[in-house]
Write a structure and sequence with these properties.
Shape: globular
Strand content: 5-15%
Number of helices: 4
Oligomer: single chain
Order of helices and strands: HEEHEHEH
Radius of gyration: 15 Å
Length: 168
Amino acid sequence: MQMNKQTLEEDGFTGFQSFREMEINRVPQVPGIYTVLKPEGFQPLFLAKSVGGQFKKRDPSLFQAALETHWIEDAEVLYIGKAGAGTAGTRGLRKRIQELADFGRGKPVGHWGGRLLWQLADSQSLVIAWKELEAAEVNSTEAAYQAEFISLCGRLPFANLVQARGKG
């Protein structure tokens, strides 16, 4: 068993658009989780410097040896993230995915998680998909998907550097 586009679709994920082609207004404004996948035929080429934004003047780049250590050759899923409603209830998937995309386009946005994505050549071809959830389910669902990925591949996805906790 693998975690890939087919299994994610069967589990209720939608979207599956590249960052280059994504229409952000089609992303729902509700809580949920999202994944970033490599497109078919994608070969990793690590850039010496990330194209990601420098949030709080921090360079998101890692050395190539560190990137190679995190890469999992046969894994289609590169990152698993979450989007809560926020304290005012105005965040959600659209806002969080927009922040991720903006960070990947060099804007100084607070989306440090997943930053390794933006050190891949042709990162705009990476595919984003999401699953809508009730706000109370977001944290535990993100943690469960990461745990499933670890059980399949032995470690977190490439761009997940910290394992999610399933607490409220």
